[in-house]
Amino acid sequence: MHNSNLSDSIKDLFKSKGIDLVGFSKIQNIKDFDYMNDWLRNGFHAEMKYLENPKRQEPASSIDSSYVSVISCAINYNLFDIRENSLNSKKNNMAWIARYAVIDDYHKILKKLIDNLMQEVLKIHKLNYKVYIDTGPLLERAYSKYAGIGWVGKNSCIINKELGSFFFLSEILIDKPLIYDNPVREMCGTCTKCIDSCPTNAIVKDKQIDSNKCISYLTIENKNIIDNDLASQISNNVYGCDICQEVCPWNRKVKIKENFNWNIRNYFISPDLNELLDLIENNWEEIKINSPLKRAKKQGLIRNILLAMANTKDKKYIKRIKYYLTNENQVLATTAKQAIFIIDK
Ligand code: SF4
Ligand code: SF4
Asked: Quick check: is 179 in a domain?
């Protein structure tokens, strides 16, 4: 039997505490598992072998068959004006760090918030639950879609027509039925702005991203030398890439998230390349604390900054780049050579 009291109380409580969107879906076999398999077969996951975990191709109930429902939550991280963006930053030869990464790492913040909310729920309703904040083998976008949070855009992001796509997604599995939501209508229409704007042509098919070419993957997950042709295309993006979201018309007028303590680090918003390199070289131990940037590691960030400097074509950076030519770290030494080549071309 559906539990309307439970459904209403979860939605009311979560929304009152800063979760922007909440929706429910039933755990079941969904056709998105085929889509995931196709993506993997094409090798579009690059070196992210953990995505081959077979559990991702099974319903969430395979984690524990007692779970029957997924609560999908979305929290908007649109913390500053969309006119402050990577493309404008590029015009001024500034670096760009993806919007989600200029704040504290969201995983811990959301886990704590959602656990606290579930403790409130448990005071009234008896149930078991398990929280996923990008932390397990769940197809989170698929579950968000079935929960009516938004549709999957051609850029593969979940888009909500009021709140755009700058969201952190999380899921809670519970062992109680709920009043389930319906997917919303897809509203990309004939638009192809994200596909046309992607600097590396990484959106290879409708909703399919080839990570091997995607700047987000190249600048964060990839720890090796970036291929020459892609190195000049990563432009000013030193951690992640927001371009296919920035150009999306659904992000043009979304409201700025206020009253939520994400601890914005202003020195990461459109930073000067020299200043950013100083910061990473000299203050890494301090700034990596609670920062998403630590996923790229110090070496990865320096590699990306050297390439971003080269991509400005401004020879004022040559001295700084040359310093790394003799670095004992081969990725940095080779990247410095690559950067000199790009700047001289
Ligand atoms: S994140 Fe950047 S590189 Fe990746 S698909 Fe979007 S625009 Fe292309
Ligand atoms: S830019 Fe256009 S096609 Fe791409 S996700 Fe947004 S609406 Fe859809």
From this structure: no
For the four alpha carbons of 306, 227, 194 and 133, in that order, the dihedral sign comes to negative
Identify the residue whose tokens are 């519970």.
174
Q: 116 CB under 6 A from ligand 2?
A: no
- How is residue 211 written in tokens? 């990570």
Domain end among 121, 140, 174? 174
What is the pTM for the complete model shown?
0.94
Considering the domain architecture, whether residues 31 and 170 belong to the same structural domain is answered as yes
CA torsion through residues 291, 297, 303, 304, sign: negative
Q: Which helix (H) or strand (E) element contains residue 333? A: helix 330-344
- Using pLDDT thresholds of 50, 70 and 90, give the confidence band for residue 4: low
Residues 167 and 298 in one domain: no
Same domain assignment for residues 249 and 334:
yes
pLDDT, tens digit, for every residue of 218-236?
Answer: 999 999 999 999 999 999 9
Distance 251 CA to ligand 2 centre (A): 10
Distance 155 CA to ligand 2 centre (A): 6
Tally the domains of the chain: 2
Q: Hey, whose CA ends up nearest to atom 6 of ligand 1?
A: 244
Which residue from 202, 209, 214, 220 is spatially nearest to 304, judged by alpha carbons? 220
214 lines ligand 1 (CB under 6 A): yes
Same domain, residue pair 167 and 226:
no
Helix (H, G, I), strand (E, B) or coil at 25: strand
- The region, left, alpha or beta by phi > 0 then psi within -120 to 50, assigned to residue 91 is alpha
Q: For the segment 249-291, what is each residue's pLDDT rounded down to a tens digit? A: 999 988 888 877 889 999 999 999 999 999 999 999 999 999 9
How would residue 35 be classed by pLDDT, with cut points 50, 70 and 90?
Answer: confident
Extract the tokens encoding 107. 């995983």
Residues β-bridged to residue 28: none
pLDDT computed for residue 1 by the predictor? 41
